[in-house]
């Protein structure tokens, strides 16, 4: 979609007065490129397939039209947002909640890790549902949730939602929604296979690709170290000793490995916590609360933290182990360098990673400078502390 007619101000959008006042109160004046391109299309009721990198404002791009087009006078679910993780559901709700209240719209979160009962009660009179596929399907099957009046369905992180893991549940959920609904798909990456699957769910969709040709933003400095004889943990400790004041996310491959690594680092005196899929919901929320507040500045995580989470002042991402795909690499490093802020991504490569790394570089369309790790290896200076984020980045 051509972007030359983008709005330069939120005031140009046809939004209810209460929403304009809420944006002004939050000092949100100029939309990001994905917001400028997607909001007018969604306000017209058209379907959208939107791609923009992490931290570019995709959440607000669909939340504003969603709130504007929902009718508080209709006591039924009118909008459904499906997300892959509990954490992303909570984050979307944090953006939507204040804006929904300006129009007296009620929203409810549906995700695992807690009992169905409170969610069932909250669904009564709800206008908007934000849910993970499994829990949303549970409520549909039990008759707690009806999608008969849904006007808009949003698939956030659409490439993952349409992949093999979630796709069957997503298909079952969409079968409960009206055929003539509005559908929006948003993701940081849009692999070619997504288009074919997405075509089954959208009607005459406008495709908006804001930064598809740039795999990594210039705000992120990449450093790749070849660790040959040095134990991986020793290299990680050296990096953490130079981390500065900003928050750090260290990505590992498996739940067990991340948990074990966090325990070892904590035993060595590093302020760490682990975020992985085996945690209860309460434990996840405690981990994220500590990380967001800065009381625990080092987060060890599996890919569960690579999708959509926006945490202020993540100055450094370390790929302790390579992810499964180039797309996951993009999502991981996108946790830093958000909304024009400086960020640093460090990747550790063992000899057995060489083949996979060449595949990553080919898929990403760029070569990364590689440095040999030695006892006296150059360590990047910690990124500068940045100003607080704007909600426009959500």
Features:
14 helices; globular; Rossmann fold; 35% helix; 7-stranded parallel β-sheet; alpha/beta
Largest sheet features: 7 strands, parallel
Number of beta strands: 14
Label the structural class.
alpha/beta
Q: Could you name the CATH homologous superfamily of the largest domain?
A: P-loop containing nucleotide triphosphate hydrolases
Gross geometry: globular
Mean pLDDT across residues: 85
- What integer value in Å does the Rg equal? 21 Å
- Per CATH, which architecture of the largest domain? 3-Layer(aba) Sandwich
Q: For this entry, what is the oligomeric state of its chains?
A: single chain
* Helix content class: 25-40%
CATH class of the largest domain: Alpha Beta
Here the CATH topology of the largest domain equals Rossmann fold
- The helix-strand sequence is HHEHEHEHEHEHHEHEEHEHEHEEHEHE
Strand order of the largest sheet: 3-4-2-5-6-1-7
Describe this structure as you would to a colleague.
Helix 12 (281-293) links the parallel strand 10 (272-275) and strand 11. The model is unreliable at 214-218 and 382-391 (pLDDT under 50). The chain is α/β, with parallel strands linked by helices. The two termini are 22 Å apart. The chain is built from 14 helices and 14 strands. It has 2 domains: 10-209, Rossmann fold (3-Layer(aba) Sandwich); 220-393, Rossmann fold (3-Layer(aba) Sandwich), CATH 3.40.50.300. The strands form 2 sheets. A 7-stranded parallel β-sheet has the order 3-4-2-5-6-1-7. Strands 10-11-9-12-13-8-14 form a 7-stranded parallel β-sheet, with helices on both faces. Helix 2 (33-43) runs parallel beside helix 3 and helix 6 crosses helix 8. Helices cover 35% and strands 17% of the residues.
